[in-house]
Amino acid sequence: MFPIKTVLALLILATGSLSASDAALQRRLSPEEIDRLASSSGGAGTSGLPAVTTTVLYGDPAKAGLYSIQLRVAPDTVIQAHTHKDARTATVVSGTWYFGYGKKSVPEAVRKLPAGSFYTEPAGDPHFARTGSDGAVLLITGYGPTDTKYLK
């Protein structure tokens, strides 16, 4: 049998260890804090276009695990048909996003998605998008690793 002091010490260490581990997974960001995070026009799961700025909010899209990214897409940007190897969900945070499914960007396949809209990007399912004169901000979440493969 272990002495009570040893048991209490082990419980405190285990509880402290769990709390530190849980704390590493916790993330709260205000819009101002998001604006101060590093951004790029490339990276895993992004279009790679200069008109699209990507900010990683959580996780690492290039590695296995849950990730969330914010895309800021400039006005009048066209993203040609492409796929991702992971299933993703997206919410239009601001602006208007014109999104369609298919191997070619055709006007009749596009749906206008205003701020507050939600859509999915199933794994391997070709899709395309564009913005109008107001651009758009999107929040995309998936389970990596992700990629972007444009169709020819």
TrEMBL record:
Name listed for the protein in its UniProt record: Cupin domain-containing protein
Signal peptide: 1-20
Record's keyword terms, sorted: Signal
Record-linked CDD domains: cupin_DRT102 (cd06989)
Tagged with keyword rRNA processing: no
Keyword Signal set for record: yes
Superkingdom, natural source: Bacteria
Originating species: Noviluteimonas lactosilytica
